[in-house]
Every structure is written in structure tokens, then in C-alpha cells.
Amino acid sequence: MNLSKIKLEHVTSPKKWKNFIVGMYRTFKFGAFGAKQYSTLYTAIMKADMPVHYKEQVLWRATQCSDCLLNGSCLHCGCEMPGKFLDETDECDQNKWGPMMVSPVWDMFKEDNNVQL
Q: What residue segments make up the domains of the chain, in order of their start?
């Protein structure tokens, strides 16, 4: 985690604390801790017991923020990667992705935006 990038509003936000705790818990639970390569994250996520639309959105988030994944923390906000990708309510501070979508909405988004994983 890059503490120099973390903003005061993130430290004082209960939502951001929740996002951090959920993301870190799931990072350990799904065996993705330390995943700085897309292929390592892919392997961990595909083995995880979670809905397909959730897995796809985690991986899509990683493709949108591949530099942050390689860095191990977000280059803009300092959040831990891949933990930030794993919380369905979290969103990118650079507006690259928002909270996770329910399955039918995600399917429509993939089609409209030609998302292929």
C-alpha cells in the first residue's frame, strides 16, 4: 500500500475502510495475495468459488488498471491491489470502473463495450 497517495477523505471514510477490509479479506480468501501479474490473478480468481459475472468483473477491472496491478497498489489513490478489484462496491478513483454490476447488466455492458476476457 502506498501511504503517500492516500487522501485524508479516504482515511476518514467508513465506506473506504469497509472496501479495504473486504478487499484484503477476499485477497487472502481467494489466494490472490501478492498477485502482481494478470496471469497469477486470473489463476487465483478462476479457482475461487464465486459467480462467473463476479470473476469476469474482477478480471476486467485488472485489465483496466494493469499498471496499478503490477505496482501492487493504485498509482492514483494508493489502495492495495488486487484487493481493490475484489470488493463489489468499490470503484476506481479515476472513473475506469464502478461498483460491480448484476449479471444481466454486466452481460449487456460486455456486449455494448466489446469486452472479451
A: 3-112
pLDDT bracket for residue 53 (50, 70, 90): very high
Return left, alpha or beta for 95; rule: phi > 0 is left, psi -120 to 50 is alpha, else beta.
left
**pTM recorded for the entire structure:** 0.79
The pLDDT, as a whole number, for residue 9 is 64
CB atoms inside a 10 Å sphere around CB 43: 14
Nearest-angstrom CA–CA distance, 102 and 98: 12
* Plot region of 21 (φ>0 → left; ψ -120 to 50 → alpha; else → beta): alpha
Given a cut of 90, is residue 108 above it in pLDDT?
yes
